[in-house]
Design a protein that fits this description.
The chain is mainly beta. The protein is about 10% helix and about 50% strand. The chain contains one helix and five strands, in the order βββββα. It has one helix at about 80-90; strands at about 5-20, 20-30, 35-40, 60-65, 70-75. The chain has a five-stranded mixed barrel with strand order 1-2-3-5-4. A hairpin with a 3-residue loop joins strand 1 (about 5-20) and strand 2 (about 20-30). The longest helix is centred in the C-terminal third of the chain and has 9 residues, at about 80-90. It is globular. The protein starts with a strand and ends in an 8-residue tail after the last helix. The relative contact order is 0.23.
Amino acid sequence: MSTRVEHQPAFILHRRPYRETSWLLDVVTPDYGKVSLVAKGARRGKAPDASLYQPFQPVLISWLGKSDLKTLSGLEARRLAPEAQELQQRGLSGQWLF
């Protein structure tokens, strides 16, 4: 049975090229832990959301699939809480680094 997950908050941990126009993404989510995804067509020339595929970006993702490697079906930017935005602007150090 195919699983569909909608608008899950996540951080992209790692990306690597896959075939000619896709990325393999490793993401971490609060509810599902580490998930491996294929972002089909994401490496095409003029993708408007290309900056969202950078590591450590807070995103909302949707995916579907029944194997260990899921297919990304949606990706959008996620706004951080004001406290997290302030930390991101100051830079992470000490306890906040972990």
